[in-house]
Sequence to fold (559 residues):
Amino acid sequence: MILTKKVKIRTKRNRTMSYYKELGYQIDDKEYIFVDVKDLPISSHVKIDVKCDSCGKEKTIPYQKYTKNINNCNFYACCAKCAKEKIKKTSIEKFGKEHYSQTEEYEISYKKSVKEKYGVEHHTQNNDVKEKSKNTCLEKYGVEYYTQTDEYKEKYKNTCLEKYGVENTFQSEKFKNKIKETNLEKYGVENIMYLDKNKNRISKISREIRKNYILEKHKNIKFNEIDYKNNNFNIHCDKCDMDYNITPSLFKNRTRTDSEICLICNPLNYGHTSDKENKLYNFIKENYNGEILQNKRKIISPYELDIYIPEMKLAFEFNGVYWHNELNKSKNYHKTKSNLCEEKGIQLIHIWEDDWNYKQEIVKSMILNKLGKTKNKIYARKCEIKEVIDNKLIRKFLDESHIQGFVGGKVKIGLFFEDELVSLMTFGKKRISQNSSSGEDEYELLRFCNKINTNVIGGASRLFKYFTKNYKYNEIITYADLSYSNGNLYKQLGFNFIHKTQPNYYYVINGIRKHRFGFRKDVLVKEGFDPNKSEHEIMLERKIYRIYNAGNLKFIKNN
Fold:
């Protein structure tokens, strides 16, 4: 919209005066004349005041720029964002749709051109296009699809946490309710699967899609029959040369955890020891030749130790995330077992089921280190020490080598052997100490780890010495997770033990422990849950349960 009514035009040496004379303006010997904006030639550079027809923002621009802008549907847009509204308006006027690409005309034209070029209705159905897309992604990201990258997953997770307070949109009650409302408005039911006309058709299509997916994914398995309708897979086992029936859910669970699928070779175990615990035991047995005891109650009676190596005073507890949640184990269960072991001089390592499922290589590397069986050994004195500024390298290193994964830090110091990062220590700045007259800072030692399956001898000592030499500090604190550590490393670095913390809790969602930060009461209330109930009450109502660890050891080093 034009706000200026009239503009001042200089008459002397102005080539457009004849144009204004024809319009009836009296020029005579006047130095200036006032002209109606509507009478300006479309190429005029005279500046006028305008208002955006979308957001209402006022600007001063040349008249020529304005006329070009309103060329379509007489709509002035001040920026790219407002231009989108303009495009929508133009498209609605011309085609009755917000975008031309939504029209039948476009769809027919697109399909025709694509069919002529690729022989299919959509270019993404063409095998050459698929292959080219995969190769591009492999070159850029090292995976076939961008959605498989850690960058995308992290970005998606952070966006969801910011918008909904959960890591996935489908975990948000607000999002679920929105889907229900849309379905009720359109179809009169909360879920389109409830529609009679859709039930059989969708079920049939869904079963066919799942069947094709299973056949494609597990080409090495001999399926006699895949019957989702009757909840049954019939499979031939080459190992025992027998056919057996297995439910789809059990098949999925066994393939996901890399278990023996055959129910004849690996019968269902209704006893005390799980298949995963047996796999942990077998791994330890493969790498240790001494005595290994399994499921013994006499050592820390009345509690049981899943796996115990008497010679090394080392024990392992396999914690299934369902059987060890708050419904089945008390808050102090894992802490008590760790304390009883400590009293007898035994270090108890807690192996959590989700770590075993999704971080198994890191878990195995930690076990080999405890057993003294790490094959790759490097001396810290042979490494180059330097501060690391490449955050992508740090994220990749910690995600691949540290059981707790990546966390941001202010100071990142690494050891490099033959230009490869083999050991990393990170620190976070906490706050200015009120007791420090010099204004020195307080830090927290956040992460220390060596490259997976590698022992950097003297690495921690050299990294920590570099930090204390190059950074002023009043105190440094750190925590050792009792699930994996007894804190001896920090004692060797000169830290003093302060106390044991109470067990920390996580929430178990889809078999994975999630940090409680994303489920604070304020976040849950924003999602629409009852503000009069506590965080714990809300989560219990949702049938999402807590699981407690063994606590932490807190250490401090004063300057």
Q: What stands out?
A: The chain has 18 helices and 23 strands. The mean pLDDT is 87.
